Fold each of these.
Amino acid sequence: MKKNEKNKTQKYDCIIIGGGPSGLMASIAAAEMGAKTLLLDKGDKLGRKLAISGGGRCNVTNCLPIDEVIKHIPGNGRFLRSAFSQFSNLDIIDFFTKLGVPLKEEDHGRMFPQSDNAGSVVIALIERFRKLGGEIRENTAVKKVLYEHELARGVVTLHNEMIYADAVVIAVGGKSVPHTGSTGDGYVWAKVAGHTITPLFPTEVPVTSAEPFVRKKVLQGLSLQDVAVSVLAPGKGKEDALQTLKVAGKPVVTHRMDLIFTHFGLSGPAILRCSQFVVQIMQKNNVHEVILAVDALPDVKDEQLFQQIIEQAAVDPKKSVKNGLRGLLPERYLLFLLELAEVDSAQTCGNISNEKWRRLVQQVKRFEIRVNGTLPIEKAFVTGGGVSLKEINPKTMASKLVPNLYFCGEILDIHGYTGGYNITAALVTGRIAGMNAGDRVE
């Protein structure tokens, strides 16, 4: 009984639930405000999502201007403007430098620790929190958040241990990459508090296709570099969206990056960035397929490419098409497109009509692929949807519905592209939530 009584009277100024990037940052921020802070995590290791980010090197943030960063967070990035005015991506860089983890810039503004080791980032965050007197409890799952007299007052653990606090910060992530601990627990606690959860969907995820060439694994494993992938809007009728580029709408979005053909569909950076738009179009328009258009040579216009092919073929008209066009595209992809354009790769270049060359140009510049969805949210890098931002104070990350309750990180309805943008959103919202949760201590 004495042990139970002791458990019932545990009291902290601030409890942070979740030891991911937003939770660790929130814990540090609260402790820096002088709050007696407890960090709870159901796993046996903190920072697991940080540890696997950037291929194990941890893409901590991105150093592009704020407006550019927000553009790369298409899922409600504008909500972060107020937060960025208090703690920006440049402040993140300075923060880690002061922790003894200097960062370096790589392509597209991505920032990595100079050590190229994600572990150095996680260790620095944990050590900083502990030096501030913070307490960490791993292997401690939260069963529910305590709400008393319409206030957040603490938590109840899976073992029915009651821990009280003047402020509670929910930083448990979304539903993507569940092996890191993000299994959607926080949505239930948010709903109990009266919060709206916008529909969840996978983002930054490979897409699936039932195209014959996919089913037959014709291009499986082939990677195309620096191609432009467009997601096309549906045409006027639902059936139009399933036909050709001519009747489909204009591109909703275009991303120029690498693409990889898989046994189930498409992957690679360009596809990951397009994936959320595929999901949204399918849901909004109630269609079962969306067309992607791949431009394999985005720097060359159609007519320029046609003239280039004509000239290349004319160098030696007796060469086979396969050899005459060598170097234009990766050979496997070239042979595939030649077949689609009904051009015999074994035929001599001099025997190919201009009409057939134009068919090839069309395939090179606008190869259309019908995709029918994505891999499940558990396979996604990022969760779309979450706690409605209409119910969150953008200046403090506090709940507008329940005093003493704060949200940060991926549980919020915020999602960005890969490249350091999601971790930036997590660290910034974590910082703001922790500062305000720690500052309002009674």
Amino acid sequence: MIEAMKIPNADWFDSAFTEQPEQAHSGIVYLIGAGPGDADLITVKGLRYLRRADVVLYDRLASPELLDELAQGTEKVFVGKGPACHTMKQEEINRLLISYAQQGRTVVRLKGGDPFVFGRGGEEALALAQAGIRFEIVPGVSSAISVPAYAGIPVTHRDYVSSVTIVTGHEGHGHDSSPINWEALAKTGGTLVILMGVKGLAQITPRLIAGGLAENIPAAVIQEGTTPRQRLVTGTLADIAQRATVAKISSPAITVIGTVVSLSNALEWYEMAREA
């Protein structure tokens, strides 16, 4: 996170997007959601902007196939982050976006899923706004919804649940001081979708049970969802962490906890489509 970052005042939008004389030749940054993994799930708008980019800064979770859509000569910069392995610090990414735009270039920041759903897109947008750089947000298909769908799990269903909570599991890996109140989340009563939490699942599930969530409630872990490498492991809240370990599930993976997981047996269409 950028040090001493302050949210701009109410006039920031007009000042950032109204072209001033000194900004007449400035570039623009498009923060684009690439979708969950399947290259076909990028939006039409996102693909259009991608094809006109001068430089693309792309993440680990953005489909490599999307880079084939770039115009010849487009500069490609990998800035992906993996578990305990960051190619580039966030502050450096922010500085690069600003620098390229100040050179008058059309910049695409290609991010997995949606830029504003645990994608740090908000931090990047604030950095651009504070630097007076023009930018546009192009929402993407979030993995929190689409990955369960590819596994035959509707995160809401009027006969089962009418709410869904999306939370990151990354911050609480094995730390008692986790800012996430898992015990409180156990009482929400809807579907719980945990992003980036597979490594900490063995610590998370007991806290959910301690908060009152039933041990036998269905649970699933989906690795590399929406891609040909998709793997699905199902079980209950009590045993899903162990099942995921035995199956050697690794990141990127999403955990879904709730009664709707039981529908995957009947609705797991993607596996059947791959076998057809």
